[in-house]
């Protein structure tokens, strides 16, 4: 149902923007090249953190984990293809994180896992937009009232990207952060049924935004986008608990502690103790991880002489 709603919205934007653009001037041909920079926030949707209940299969606002908000910065280039489409390519660099301490759901809170990771993303997105603009008075005349000039552009987008990540967790004994992949916390690479994951993955950005043109050169905008990934290991949590002694033999006390830091691991009398034994559920491999960006951008329109002309 959600997919049908999105496709319908995409079709409506395409049709409306095409018909609306026929009445507009050719100003977009002169302002096709823009560069931008931005700053914003990130959030993570995976096994860790989130609502005070078992996480949902699809993203909903109840899964938004406010304590796990982290910063992100963005730079890139935008090219206007025609009156209703543009392409934007850029680099986003930030951090994401999650912690079971942020939820009161019994089993996840007892699991007590946490992580943080840098995200370095390279992405290109196709934007379908509508441009609403009005020219103001050509001259400033005293006593003459009227509607001033404005230009704003709402849009939706979908694209493709690649990102590098490296989940880490804090070892309370020495206070240091350790890269989790090399610790094989779920036995990845130690048995044939559990392969190692790669730290570079592909993603699909999808979202919406709004830009406002301040003057001929400068504009400002806000954009929100979710990144659908194809891995469940952005937070290093996916399947079941592995044998602790095998992890300790391979990676020492740090590997054993970070693989199972549960609150009841040393209390066999507690009913939750059995929930973190080898073979019990640690994550949910049926749902891949996602992350999201909310960014405020500043745009600068390049003079036509900066770049060669491209014809479409």
Number of strands: 11
Instruction: Please indicate the count of domains.
Output: 1
The string of secondary-structure elements, in order, is HHEEEHEEEEEEEHE
Gross CATH architecture = Beta Barrel
Let me know the largest β-sheet. Answer: 8 strands, antiparallel, barrel
Number of helices: 4
* Average of per-residue pLDDT values: 84
> What does the overall shape look like?
elongated
Main sheet strand line-up = 1-2-3-4-6-9-10-11
Q: Distance between termini?
A: 35 Å
Q: Provide the structure class.
A: mainly beta
CATH fold assignment: Porin
Q: Strand share of the residues?
A: 35-45%
Radius of gyration equals 24 Å
Q: Give the fraction of residues assigned to helices.
A: 10-25%
Regarding CATH, which class?
Answer: Mainly Beta
Verbal overview:
The protein is mainly β. It has one domain (2-10, 32-135, 147-306): Beta Barrel (Porin), CATH 2.40.160.20. It has four helices and eleven strands; from the N terminus they run ααβββαβββββββαβ. It is elongated and about 75 Å long. The two termini are 35 Å apart. The relative contact order is 0.18.
